Task: structure prediction
Amino acid sequence: EDKVVQSPLSLVVHEGDTVTLNCSYEVTNFRSLLWYKQEKKAPTFLFMLTSSGIEKKSGRLSSILDKKELFSILNITATQTGDSAVYLCAERNAGGTSYGKLTFGQGTILTVHP
Amino acid sequence: ETGVTQTPRHLVMGMTNKKSLKCEQHLGHNAMYWYKQSAKKPLELMFVYSLEERVENNSVPSRFSPECPNSSHLFLHLHTLQPEDSALYLCASSLPGSEQFFGPGTRLTVL
Result:
């Protein structure tokens, strides 16, 4: 059974700090790894990673995948209070289907204090 | 707004009630999903519909019954639920091989 583990489970920082969130996975038929941000209800999509070593960047957020060591990191630089949220990592298994099944980690709760 | 809407946003029901959750997507996607999110547990996939046909059912109890009448609409029919079924129920949709877009969820409380 596929497994996704995120660390740390929670993190408290001050505005301006840089944070690194970790995601490790064990899969039988890896297709891609996704990051989501969940503030109140709906998780919102951040990144999808399929290739090792290629950094994806969006503003102050960036992410990279290591398919050899089976992990991904999400970096947030110059954090702001609006970055406070639960960050979810999910692995998509090819599973012989076109849609691909997502297995989620338990999430990292990030709190950014002013 | 992600293009995926869910109603109702909050629902309180007794164990003998029958209710339905509704999801609608306006993104032209052809796969739709139901997830359950309980406190301190990862998002759990419940059902997947692709091209209106159910292709995944993660051993969900029969008191949850999905329905997908077309590629834009998805329902979750609920009956004789248990208090442990209280959770946030999220709907999502996607195209093949692409990221899933989530709705705002329905917060369900079973008394």
Q: What stands out?
A: Residues 46 and 77 of chain A are 15 Å apart (CA to CA). The first strand of chain A starts at residue 3 and ends at 7. Chain A touches chain B through 24 residues (CB under 8 Å). The mean pLDDT of chain A is 92.
